[in-house]
Amino acid sequence: MSTTTERSTAAAEATPGPPIVRVSVPKRNLASELRAIRIVWRRELIRFRADRLRMATSLIQPLLFLFVLGSGLQGLASAGTHGVQLKTFIYPGILCIAVMFTAMFSAASIVWDREFGFLREMMVAPIRRSSIVIGKCLGGATVASIQGVVVICLAGLVHVPYDPLLILGIFGLQLLLAFSITAFGVMVAVRIKQMQSFMGVMQMIVMPMFFISGALFPASGLPGWLTVLNRIDPLTYAVDPMRRLVFNHLTISPAARHALDPGVTWWGWHVPSVLEAGVIVALGLTMLAIAIWEFSTTE
Amino acid sequence: MSENTAIAVHGLTKHFDEVEAVRGVSFEVAPGEVFGFLGPNGAGKTTTINMLCTLAKPTAGWATVAGHDVVTERGDVRRHIGLVFQDPTLDGYLTAAQNLKLHAELYGVQSDLVEPRMQQVMTMVGLWERKDSPVATFSGGMRRRLEIARGLMHSPRVLFLDEPTIGLDPQTRRSIWSYIRQLKEQEEITIFMTTHYMDEAEWCDRIAIMDHGEIVALDAPETLKAAVGTDRVMIQTEDDEAAIAALAERFGIEAGMAEGAVTFGVPAGEEFVPRLFAELPVRIQSVNVSRPTLDDVFMSYTGTTIRDAEEDQSKHRNRVMMQMMSGARR
Known about the structure:
The complex is a heterodimer. By secondary structure, chain A is mostly helical. Chain A is elongated, with a radius of gyration of 23 Å. Chain A has helices at about 30-50, 50-70, 75, 85-115, 120-125, 130-155, 165-190, 195-210, 225-230, 235-250, 255-260, 275-295; strands at about 265, 270. Chain A has a two-stranded antiparallel ribbon. Chain A has one domain (about 50-295). Chain B folds into 2 domains: about 5-220, P-loop containing nucleotide triphosphate hydrolases (Rossmann fold, 3-Layer(aba) Sandwich); about 230-290, ACT domain (Alpha-Beta Plaits), CATH 3.30.70.260. In chain B, helix 4 packs across helix 5 (about 140-150) and helix 8 crosses helix 11 (about 295-300). The termini of chain B are far apart.
């Protein structure tokens, strides 16, 4: 297939307007797939920028949790927090939930695209379905990370120090989380035809994941059934290492450390932070693979 | 790569569960042709287009578009076709230019040609001045024009238009047809379109009339009309049944009811009218004689006008819906 292009100017004809430009579509290759991924990714960013309201609304709920719940329950909790402010304690969890909300919303755009027909425009393009899914996931992850950065900037308000290493660590973890949650959302969204159903499913999934993850309480000494649920909740593996990172940079008593940052255990074995990050990545990649497979098999 | 046919279709069939949407259609479209698919809603036009665009897999039969098989060479087919769907597929958040650029990126159009090509296609549909406006601010007609421009962004060899003028005002419909004619002059492009507007089908080089998933006639509009051979006479009378009976008895004409009038075909309509008034025992309230149109072609092949066919179908649909709903309640 030749990729040469003729540019013929219809000089002889008196047709007004610009010259006729002929283009050609090359056979698909890796470079063109990457170009397709990039444009799907960029579209998510353009849309996010155009929709500032969404940026604000998806921050309201996490901030309510952080400042209202955090301040309001301070009195009740102070006996058990060994001098650590409740706001500081729940901060990593709130950061995760802010990222999660945005990631889910971004994934929902696949359902919007289906409802408003735009998905068809991408489906008939001469690109792999996987490029569309990957572009969507990267786009959603980027948008969610931007939201995460906004919350990271608020760290000082809840007495979390602006230590470069801490910030970098938190940023990295929330990036992984943003990607995995978007992949999860896309996996669900691919199968759903209507926005209302997607919102319903999300409500059913997001809030339980948030509450069970230990974002608001330490994940030790829980009843057996809750411990099991906590260990299979993917969000647990983002909240826990992030909290450990924050606590590493606080000056607190060993008792407080022990009570508030017990770490996640598998049958009594302490799961290291790196492995926890690995769990998030592995889950994200698995869900991405499922989403691609699902999307490729739809007509 | 075969250059002799733009589209070749053989025995193309599509079943949806129990329903046979398309029942073994075969035809060929030559390069540069404007080929129309005509038929009532639900005749199988969109399903056929979807199979040709690689959006639906045929149950049986095969088809090639721009020399590539629609099942085994989907990617190659997609590179060479442009699509304008019945339902809008633009991103309202993006500007007109952003929509077109996105399309060019998805199709891998050479970066340095994106801008000039965009200017050409947007100027053609008269939207170049509005290129930086968000699509959400566009009217229905402007959106359809933009979709046509977008479908042309990658210089497709075959452009598929599924009901491109449905729901548009007459002025916009006319301008869309002028773009299509302009396109034919400027670019070597084959146009495959569906419509259920009879008057529009006249613009096509050839048309295929589709009814109940089958092609019942295929030829140039003029040839099809000539083949009907009769003028159409529609009369309104005081007693339609008596009029139909009398027509059969005295003139040997088989008349039917169409769009609320007694309708029949005779070779020379104007000359027949005086005889009709003289000899028909039923009082005639009004007479309408017309040269054969594609409506008549449609009627002569299917025994119904396209409008009646659609009404029947929507009645049938409503009935099915009612049955489903009452069944669900039980």
